[in-house]
Design goal:
With about 350 residues, this protein is α+β, with helices and mostly antiparallel strands. It has 13 helices and 14 strands. The chain is elongated.
């Protein structure tokens, strides 16, 4: 009996050794079937086609946003104003694909993810440098700002050499002038926009943007490194209405007129500071954005959303330049306004 028992043990050992011996390599088809089996069977590829279709549509919407027509309610501009947020569909579709246990939906999800990264991946990296020849700030201070003097003091603490303000109500101009006088001995106010500077200001005048009152201006600032033309602008507001869509015609016309003024500017160095009520993606602002660089896109960290201050969702306030090089761009802490102030440094 003992001999028989040993024989059985030896046989089991022999079988284990045989199992460990390398066999022929599995074919590609066998490896594919094995991968499907590990995912849980072919059913994971058969289900989730609706989710995959949604992923493709989201990718096409982002990649072809410029093809969405503006003829009906300016839907194209509305989409482009909040275009980065379309990317939120990716984690939502990812969650749905995992719950559905669909390999097809997971693979399709790569398409909108890649498109979003291609469009906005460069914005999420920190490109800020140090130094610069001129630091500027722009801020829509809000006509109903409850603390104009406090807002002005916070802007002065930024250390900027030039500060542009928009939405200045006549009743508050004196408060801003008084609070900024020590840091900025030179200033000009044109309508509801104003410019404060540590350096002399010359040739300050309104810019006609076709709305019947002054909401844009230009001035020459004589810095120690040379002259720079500074434009301050507050383009007309836009509205989202159920019956009319994204109503922006007046803003679009004003943007075209502002772009024409900048084209005709004789000084080579130009800085635009203002609330444009539109983003760099918005095609309606192309007359301005096509000839200038966004300091945030070139030298910022993140998207630099500026509105609304309580939960910023879009960068409708802009610092744009031509003839100078952006060094750094950033947002400043909230003030009493519904917009965040923005700052940037540039070098000649």
């Amino acid at each position: 009996m003992a001999r028989a028992h040993m024989t059985e043990a030896e046989s089991e050992t022999a079988r284990e050794e045989a199992d460990r011996r390398p066999g022929p390599a599995p074919s590609a088809a066998a490896r594919f079937r094995h991968a499907i089996a590990r995912l849980g069977g072919e059913g994971r590829w058969r289900r989730g086609w609706v989710l995959a279709l949604f992923s493709v549509l989201i990718a096409l919407l982002m990649a072809l946003h410029s093809r969405v027509p503006n003829r009906v309610g300016n839907l194209g501009s509305l989409l482009e104003t909040f275009l980065p947020w379309v990317g939120l569909a990716v984690p939502l579709l990812l969650l749905a694909a995992l719950l559905r246990r669909s390999a097809t939906a997971l693979v399709a999800l790569l398409l909108p993810a890649v498109v979003w990264v291609d469009l906005f991946g460069g914005l999420i990296t920190d490109k800020r440098g140090t130094g610069g020849d001129l630091t500027v700030v722009t801020h829509n201070v809000n006509a109903d700002n409850p603390d104009p003097a406090g807002t002005a003091r916070r802007l002065a603490e930024s250390g900027a050499e030039v500060v542009a303000l928009q939405e200045l109500p006549g009743r508050s101009v004196a408060a801003y002038e008084e609070a900024l006088a020590e840091a900025y001995p030179h200033h000009t106010v044109q309508g509801t926009v104003g410019l404060w500077s540590r350096y002399p200001i010359d040739d300050a005048r309104p810019v006609d943007i076709g709305i019947g009152w002054t909401r844009a201006m230009r001035a020459t600032v004589a810095t120690p490194r040379g002259e720079v033309a500074v434009y301050g602008a507050h383009l007309p507001s836009v509205r989202v209405k159920f019956e009319a869509g994204f109503t922006a015609r007046q803003r679009d016309v004003a943007a075209d007129l502002l772009g024409e003024a900048i084209v005709a500017e004789p000084i080579g160095r130009v800085v635009l500071l203002g609330d444009l009520n539109g983003t760099m993606n918005d095609r309606a602002l192309a007359s301005v954005t096509s000839q200038m660089r966004s300091t945030q896109g070139a030298a910022g960290d993140g998207f630099g959303f500026s509105w609304p201050a309580s939960f910023p969702m879009a960068r409708i306030d802009q610092i744009m330049v031509k003839g100078v090089e952006p060094v750094s761009s950033w947002s400043l802490p909230p003030t009493g306004s519904d917009h965040l102030p923005l700052a940037a440094s540039v070098r000649w």
